[in-house]
Amino acid sequence: MPNDGMKSDGLIDEIKSRIDIHDLIAEYVDLKRAGQNYKGLCPFHSEKTPSFMVNPAKQIFHCFGCNKGGDIFSFIMNYENMPFNEALSFLAGKAGVQIEASHGSGANKGLKENLFAIHERRLSSTGRTSRRPGMHSHISRRGTSTRKQSSSSL
Ligand SMILES: [Zn+2]
Q: How are beta strands 60-63 and 52-55 bridged, if at all?
């Protein structure tokens, strides 16, 4: 399906380029500068010492306490408890970006799901710790199932 992959991708980029993660999160969390990053009390778990970091260079946040992290979309999804498509509309609104046909048509839903996939894929390729233990564990080993021999293996 070579349809609106590029366009979707562009939309996310557009929104990200218009919204600075520090400005966004500063509306919710009291952030203090800490070197190149900003630090604050994590909004996702309760804590007394700030372990919530915002990295404006990479446009990501990360909490060392509860391990939540991601970009502006992840933040809004977690903070406002919104599904991706709502977070997208929310941020698009903030950014002044128009999402075509934003009235819940089926096609649009497809687009948003597509965006979500792109978003997730990007996140996992931008240095968020990959937590997929044993990813290779069930890569199929074909050819072991030719049953020439009788199945007496128990
Ligand atoms: Zn946290």
A: antiparallel
